[in-house]
């Protein structure tokens, strides 16, 4: 039987994650590998959240839940977003989704008709091109160059905007750790408003900001009527497996997305929504507890890398990663990552996994305990220095 072109071409550019798959295969064989690949916490979901999830399930909240989300959770998310962004937000602006990824797909289904162009910033999270293709649109990456600190360039985006109906951004950024500055964000808001594009803002790392403060573009002048914000409990509350997130947007857009949810996900389990409500009610202390190890490891890692003459780090202002420039070794990001895994059993992600703009870089996830991270970085940097010496001889 024929597989539809929509699925057969979903990842036609390849996912570039061969190093990750190889590392996992080695681990399955019993080989010790230091995995610094994906953004998965090294702690489980907080026991108090799990207890609430258990209580809600045992209490009977296991049937169909309201498709847009429970009133209580939508109200809580709206209050949470209002407090964080300063933008008045109500229940009608909120759709609860099965995680941030589902929210990204829903947002593009709203913004893009078949054949439209969906813009996104390169480097990018690995699912972005496939998500846009799944919505029937053509994914169009626009480079944010290492030489510009991986900040997006509104003029470069404008040059690619013909035929586009959406622009997807992500700040704090995965994979670079960059926080987009206010002037750049205002430029993107102005550009998308003028060109009639939906601005889709992936803000799942908004509680993981180490330098400066998170600014949602929805809070900027002229943004509210054409901006969709995707949020999630995955990173902020270590609830990756619970699959609970949301889309924030104008009420007519959310109404249309509720129709989409009715015909796709049919909502999120009620006991998971109850646990998310409990977690948000706990307030900032829990988010800070989840974020604290990554702030500490960012500082630790930045200090280690600063002493290396051949490897530089992009400014890690937020999220769970370091983006390291290893171009002086003479290897591509993929070549470096493969050699590091083969010789030293340390797994990092090649920059090329996240687009062409990150070529010659590797992404390091700060997802192991401090001492193991420090050892792995020491080995990585010595390996890079050895490669440079070999190239010079």
UniProtKB/TrEMBL annotation:
Q: Which family does it belong to?
A: Belongs to the class-I pyridoxal-phosphate-dependent aminotransferase family.
Which PROSITE patterns does this entry report, sorted A to Z?
AA_TRANSFER_CLASS_1
Q: What is this protein called?
A: Aminotransferase
Start and end residues of each Aminotransferase class I/classII large domain = 33-380
Name its GO BP terms in alphabetical order: amino acid metabolic process
InterPro entries for this protein: Aminotransferase_I/II_large, AspAT/PAT-like, NHTrfase_class1_PyrdxlP-BS, PyrdxlP-dep_Trfase, PyrdxlP-dep_Trfase_major
* Key words, A-Z: Aminotransferase, Pyridoxal phosphate, Transferase
The record's Pfam families line, in alphabetical order, gives: Aminotran_1_2
Q: Which cofactor does it need?
A: pyridoxal 5'-phosphate
Species this protein is from: Marinovum algicola
Gene3D superfamilies given in the database record = Type I PLP-dependent aspartate aminotransferase-like (Major domain) (3.40.640.10)
